[in-house]
Every structure is written in structure tokens, then in C-alpha cells.
Amino acid sequence: MLKTGRTTMPSPSALDLCAAIDAAASAAHSGAAILQSYAHHRSDLVIDHKARNDLVSQADREAEAAIIEVLRSRTPDFGIVAEETGGTPEGPATWYIDPLDGTTNFLHGIPHYAVSIALVAHAGARVPGPDPLQEDTPVIGVVYDPCREELFTAVHGIGAWLNGRRVNCSRTKSLADAVLATGFPFRDFSFADQYMPMLKEAICITRGVRRMGAAALDLAWTACGRYDGYWEMGLAPWDVAAGTLLVREAGGVCHDMHQHDPWPIGGRVVAGNPDIVEALHGMIAPHLRKE
């Protein structure tokens, strides 16, 4: 029980993560159905430019509306932060929604994009376990790739799955044997002077570097061992929230590049198994400006 003045209040109940993961998966499928309905009629889409190389279409907006409708009806006590309509964190936990991660791929007919939905529980919230959370923590993650019909899911403290089968990060020990994923500066070029030396070094010392253009899938593919590690700068919270939990629940590490925030809410992310993340930090640190 919690005591506030003279009033004794009941302790907040633990978040129902089973209900939340079911709601997130349903919402992801609802959003993806709209995306796929537009996929063969891309020339008819109305496309707006939010900023240089930052595109949005009615497919993004309609998919986001469908996702929000499902989540609000099934989890009305949670806040919502979505790429197109915004929002603020509130309540015991907040949904972070990217209705179409990989918009440029989608608009060019490249079949590599996804719906990404995460639930971030706030400090003080209770999840199954003995103690309240000490810091904001992703507790539900769903990344759905409708082109491959691959549904990546994760639940805090329980595990990560691809289409119902448990996944794990790779066991690669060194960068010399690693295939890495990354993302080039495409919208915010203020960090290009830091990033380009990192990329040059990665090209020289690893087995290969891939840039596919969808951060949520980069993280999901790291969680299931297709990539050994991943780093990127200049992302948004909704790009990485779900993927962060996928990697963590797959036995890996995913955190803020500067190691300040409890999860990469600032959009600078390093991910992979513990050995690869340690090596990535060694590669990145000499080129990274301190904040």
C-alpha cells in the first residue's frame, strides 16, 4: 500500500503485458493492411515533404490512424507518441508508433519497410516482478514486415520471437567476422563529420556493412542474428523503441550511443551482442563528439 498524507492508497497494479502485446500485434496488422492496399498504387499517393528527404503520404497517415484506433480502444490508459500526429508521454506507459518505417523504400517500390510499435513503461510503473521500474523502459515491442510476413515481437523479461519462434542475437565475437547494419545521414547532416570516419573504419575492418533504409528492421534483424551489430545516428524515438526491446530480449545490448539515456530515445543507437557492442564502441568513440 502507498501512504499519501493520511490516505492509504492501493499500490498500482502491474501492467498487463499479455494484453498489451496482443493489442500491439493487432494494431500492427491493421496498419500494415492499409500500407499494402496502397503498395500497388503508389503513383496515386499524395506525398508531402515535411523537410528535405523527409516524406509523408496518406498511406503513413491512414496507417497511423488505424493503429491508434486499435490502441486507444484496447489500452485507453496509456499515452501515445506517433510520428505523424505527435503526442506526449503520459500515464503509466506510452506507445511509440512508426506506422511506416522505410517510407522512401515504400514510395520507390522497394519491399523493405515495416510497422513499428513499442510500449515504454515509465519510471515507477510496475511490470511482472517484485519492484517498480527505476527508469523508463521499453516493455513491449512489435515490428511487422508485411512484404515478408515477418512479425517480430518482444515482451520485457520474457523473450523475443519471429513468427512465434524464439530468436537470439548472433554469437559473433569480433568485428572482423561481423556483418553490420547502419544508416547514412539523410535528413540531418549535422553529424556527418562524426559518422563518415566511423563508416570508413567499419568498411575496412568488418566482413561487410549494409544500409537498407529501415531502422526498425535493422534492429529486428540484429535481434534474430542476420546482422551481428548495428549503429546509427539521427533517428527518432519511434524508429528505435520496439527494436531496442527486441535486441535486449534476444540476449543483446541496445543503448544510447552516449550511454546517457535508459534507451536510445535521442536517436543515436548501438546494438548487437555484448562482444560486438563493446567493439563497436571502440570503433565509434574516437569520432564521437561528447555531449
H/E topology pattern: EEHEEHEEHEEEEEEHEHEHEEH
Please report the total strand number as a whole number: 16
What is the tally of helical segments? 7
The CA-CA distance between the termini, in Å, is 41 Å
**Helix proportion of residues, in percent?**
25-40%
Name given to the CATH architecture of the largest domain:
2-Layer Sandwich
What is the percentage of strand-forming residues? 25-35%
Structural class: alpha+beta
Using only CA atoms, what is the Rg?
19 Å
CATH topology (level 3) name of the largest domain: Fructose-1,6-Bisphosphatase, Chain A, domain 1
Please summarize the sheet with the most strands: 7 strands, mixed
* Overall tally of domains: 2
The chain-level mean pLDDT equals: 90
Oligomer: single chain
Strand order of the biggest β-sheet: 5-6-7-8-9-10-11
Report the principal-axis shape.
Answer: globular
Q: State the CATH superfamily name of the largest domain.
A: Fructose-1,6-Bisphosphatase, subunit A, domain 1
Poorly predicted spans: 1-10
Brief rundown of the structure:
Belongs to the inositol monophosphatase superfamily. This protein has 291 residues and is α+β, with helices and mostly antiparallel strands. The chain has seven helices and 16 strands.
